[in-house]
């Protein structure tokens, strides 16, 4: 089998285990079916911006050309720092885009992905956001009517919880400790100031994710098409947006958004 095209981050479906699909041009490759097989991924040298489609020599911000990094709404600093969103004040790179992405319900959550962390996601990104981070558990803390307020809550809780994912620990499937997320949710409530308590979510469901990988690496080595244009090996599993090979090498698919790849497998 040989397929080729520009890739973007893997699409996932919540199942046991999580099901992964790699968009490749106009096609989609079911990645779970490739686990246990030898695959070859060749970078052709072509990169296309995931916003405007133009060819670019260098990818910025996980898939943008430089111009789109500076102008595209999906590359705005508010993507990484939701507290900076001003869409509720009528200020944004693109207000039409903001009305669909910032001025909608957002969730503040706690998730376990190597350790306990706090984060923000749009309501329709549950549970995709947690899967992309390789989280094994997650719980919703608060529901807000826009991105800015969710960011304010996150910034406040960052004084007590991490907001980063330790990707090495996540890929080694090493949770620093066991967490009772319902208890951690109560603890988080007690830390918030009174004016933010109105956004607390009463849904105490604990989401659990299991990933298609039977053996996780004891030591991980990150590889990239920028250094190795051809990456081959036996696909051992998938977690987050990472492909995990049998020798401990890992490939971050999202980092290579817009790269044109040729992928072949030994069926």
Structure description:
The protein is α+β, with helices and mostly antiparallel strands and 267 residues long. It has 6 helices and 14 strands. The strands form 3 sheets. A 7-stranded mixed sheet has the order 1-14-5-11-12-13-10, with no helix packed on it. Strands 7-6-8-9 form a 4-stranded antiparallel sheet. A hairpin with a 5-residue loop joins β2 and β3.
Quick summary:
Helix content is 17%, strand content 30%.
Which tags fit this structure?
267 residues; alpha+beta; 2 domains; seven-stranded mixed beta sheet; four-stranded antiparallel beta sheet; 6 helices; 17% helix; 30% strand
Number of spatially distinct domains: 2
Radius of gyration: 19 Å
Q: What would the principal axes of the Cα set say about the shape?
A: globular
Helix run count: 6
Poorly predicted sequence stretches spanning 5 or more consecutive residues: none
Helix content estimate:
10-25%
The largest beta-sheet arranges its strands as: 1-14-5-11-12-13-10
| Secondary structure category | alpha+beta
The overall pLDDT, averaged over residues, is: 95
Spatial separation of the terminal alpha carbons: 7 Å
Strand content: 25-35%
Helix-strand pattern: EEEEEHHEEHEHHHEEEEEE
Largest sheet: 7 strands, mixed
| DSSP, total strands | 14
């Amino acid at each position: 089998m040989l397929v080729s095209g520009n890739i973007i981050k893997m699409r996932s479906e919540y199942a046991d285990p999580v099901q992964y699909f790699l968009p490749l041009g106009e096609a989609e490759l079911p990645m779970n079916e490739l686990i246990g097989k030898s695959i070859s991924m060749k970078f052709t040298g072509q990169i296309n911006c995931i916003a405007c489609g133009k060819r670019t020599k260098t990818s910025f911000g996980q898939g943008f050309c430089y111009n789109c990094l500076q102008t595209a709404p999906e590359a705005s600093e508010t993507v990484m720092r939701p507290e900076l969103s001003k869409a509720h004040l009528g200020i944004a790179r693109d207000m039409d885009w903001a009305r669909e992405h910032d001025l909608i319900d957002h969730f503040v959550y706690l998730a376990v992905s190597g350790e306990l962390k706090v984060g923000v996601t749009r309501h329709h990104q549950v549970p995709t956001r947690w899967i992309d981070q390789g989280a094994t558990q997650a719980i919703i803390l608060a529901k807000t009517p826009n991105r800015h307020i969710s960011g304010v809550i996150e910034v406040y809780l960052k004084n007590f919880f991490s907001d980063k994912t330790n990707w090495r620990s996540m890929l080694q499937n090493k949770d620093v400790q066991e967490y009772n997320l319902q208890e951690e949710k109560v603890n988080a409530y007690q830390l918030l100031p009174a004016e933010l308590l109105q956004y607390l979510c009463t849904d105490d469901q604990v989401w659990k994710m299991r990933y298609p990988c039977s053996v996780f690496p004891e030591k991980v080595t990150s590889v990239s098409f920028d250094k190795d244009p051809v990456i081959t090996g036996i696909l051992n599993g998938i977690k987050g947006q990472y492909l995990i090979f049998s020798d401990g090498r890992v490939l971050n698919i999202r980092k290579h958004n817009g790269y044109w790849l040729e992928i072949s497998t030994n069926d």
